[in-house]
Amino acid sequence: MWLIELQEVCEREYQNPASGQARVREMQIEWTDAHSKGEISDDLLQGLDRRAFRLLRATSEEWLQWLDDIEFWKPGWRGDDGSPNTEL
Questions:
Q1: How far is CA 68 from CA 37, 58, 80, 88, in A?
Q2: Which residues in 60-84 are b (16+ Cβ under 10 Å) and which e?
Q3: Global pTM?
Q4: Number of neighbours of residue 40 by Cβ within 10 angstroms
Q5: What is the pLDDT of residues 18-32, one digit of tens each?
Q6: What DSSP assignment string belongs to 49-73?
Q7: How far apart are CA 51 and CA 18, in angstroms?
Q8: Distance of CA 10 to the CA centre of its chain
Q9: Positive or negative torsion for Cα 38, 42, 43, 44
Q10: Is 1 exposed, middle or buried (0-12, 13-18, 19+ CB in 10 A)?
Q11: What's the angle, vertex CA 30, arms to CA 65 and CA 35, rounded to 5?
């Protein structure tokens, strides 16, 4: 649910990365709160935070690349190299 919500928020703001990034920051607070209440697992929180880190550091061009990166939105994505998969 959280991952899908993150993707939907970002897609709605695809033309306005700054607004999308502000919403991602808000969502991070929600995730942290849900985690502290035991509503989401450590693994899920780490996965969401990994994605948020990439999205928050993204330029406008990178923002669009992350949104188009199918692997980025799959559960279990690790993002070890730190760059979007542009070989789609």
A1: 32, 13, 18, 9
A2: eeebebbbebeebbeeebebeeeeb
A3: 0.87
A4: 19
A5: 999 999 999 999 999
A6: HHHHHHHHH--HHHHHHHHH-TGGG
A7: 16
A8: 8
A9: positive
A10: exposed
A11: 105
- Closest by Cα among 17, 18, 1, 20 to 9: 20
Match 């693994």 to its residue by tokens. Answer: 43
Q: Say what the pLDDT of residue 78 is.
A: 83
Helices (H), the chain: 2-12, 17-36, 42-57, 60-68
Rounded mean pLDDT of 76-81? 78
Identity of residue 82? G
d(CA 20, CA 76): 22
What is each CA distance from 1 to 18, 75, 83, in whole angstroms? 23, 11, 24
